[in-house]
């Protein structure tokens, strides 16, 4: 099983309802290929860094999909066919996340070996702030 | 260290040329991603990536930003992805 992040940008001239219908449609088409949508993240309307198809804004939506690639292929096909999707990108992330965890684990191990048990119990965000002072 | 002392020596020597003093105060560069322990550079994080695409739209070279080789590779990929999604610009307007 692989994890993918599928981001797509929908045209800004859609209404909220249209957008919801579009997202639901895409979810369904992914699920029809046995892809499991773990997370849907909508960023709402954002301004684009440069115009795409003469649009200056777009609705961003991020899917996190678990599957073997078929659902992502299907999603991409759908995106290409649908006119209201102006941009999309799918990225495989499971290997990067694994690497991230590995490095994090290694750092914690190192820290523990140094006998700094103090930092271990604190959450990651604070750890970063505290790091340069040590 | 050796580089530093050599540089300083040459500066004092060319004082007779009367040109504007080229005395760069260089801060010690460090890799932002190593320092903040960012292992995965997220292409969706515009706020993190934006400083590496200055006005002109070119990717900031690591000789200026001080990013280490490993992270520059990851960063470049993230920047290019972000550009594709119109989170960052390709060119100056």
State the gist of this model.
The complex is a heterodimer of chains A (134) and B (93). Chain A has 134 residues and is α+β, with helices and mostly antiparallel strands.
What is the topology?
The complex is a heterodimer of chains A (134) and B (93).
Chain A (H helix, E strand, L loop, with lengths): L1 E9 L5 H17 L3 E17 L2 E13 L2 H12 L3 E8 L1 H20 L3 H4 L3 H7 L4
Chain B lengths: L1 H12 L18 H4 L10 H4 L12 H4 L3 H16 L9
Strand order of the largest sheet of chain A: 2-3-1-4
Give the N-to-C terminal Cα separation of chain A: 41 Å
Q: Span from first to last CA of chain B?
A: 42 Å
> What is the number of strand segments of chain A?
4
Mean pLDDT of chain B: 78
What is Rg of chain A? 20 Å
> Main β-sheet of chain B: number of strands, strand sense, barrel status?
none
| Elements of chain B, N to C (H/E) | HHHHH
Principal-axes geometry of chain A comes out as globular
Low confidence ranges of chain B = 1-16
Biggest interface, CB < 8 A? A-B, 23 and 18 residues
- Low confidence ranges of chain A: none
| SSE class of chain B | mainly alpha
Tertiary shape of chain B = globular
Q: How many runs of DSSP E, i.e. beta strands of chain B?
A: 0
Overall pLDDT score of chain A? 85
Task: Describe the main β-sheet of chain A briefly.
Answer: 4 strands, antiparallel
Give the oligomer, counting copies of the same chain as homo and different chains as hetero: heterodimer
What does it look like?
The complex is a heterodimer of chains A (134) and B (93). Chain A is of the alpha+beta class. Chain A is 45% helix and 35% strand. Chain A has a four-stranded antiparallel β-sheet with strand order 2-3-1-4. In chain A, a hairpin with a 2-residue loop joins strand 2 and strand 3 (55-67). In chain A, helix 1 (16-32) packs antiparallel against helix 2 (70-81). Chain A is globular, with a radius of gyration of 20 Å. Helix content of chain B is 43%, strand content 0%. Mean pLDDT of chain B is 78; it is low at 1-16. The interface between A and B is medium-sized, with 23 and 18 residues.
């Amino acid at each position: 099983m692989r994890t993918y992040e599928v981001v797509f940008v929908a045209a800004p001239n859609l209404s909220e309802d249209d957008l919801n219908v579009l997202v639901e449609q895409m979810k369904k088409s992914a699920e029809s290929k046995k892809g499991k949508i773990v997370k849907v993240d909508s960023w709402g309307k954002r301004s684009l860094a440069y115009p795409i198809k003469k649009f200056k804004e777009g609705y961003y939506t991020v899917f996190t999909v678990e599957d073997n690639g078929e659902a992502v292929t299907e999603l991409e096909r759908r995106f290409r066919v649908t006119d209201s999707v102006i941009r999309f990108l799918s990225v495989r992330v499971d290997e990067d996340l694994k690497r991230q965890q590995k490095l994090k684990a290694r750092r914690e191990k190192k820290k523990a070996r140094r006998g700094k048990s103090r930092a271990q119990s604190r959450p990651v965000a604070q750890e970063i702030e505290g790091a340069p002072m040590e | 260290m050796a580089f530093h002392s050599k540089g300083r020596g040459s500066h004092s020597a060319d004082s007779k040329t009367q040109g504007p003093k080229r005395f760069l105060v260089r801060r010690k560069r460090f890799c932002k991603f190593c320092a903040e322990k960012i292992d995965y550079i997220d292409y969706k994080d515009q706020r993190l990536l934006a400083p590496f695409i200055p006005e002109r739209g070119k990717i900031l070279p690591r000789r200026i930003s001080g990013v280490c080789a490993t992270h520059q590779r990851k960063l470049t990929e993230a920047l290019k992805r972000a550009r594709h999604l119109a989170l960052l610009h390709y060119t100056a307007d």
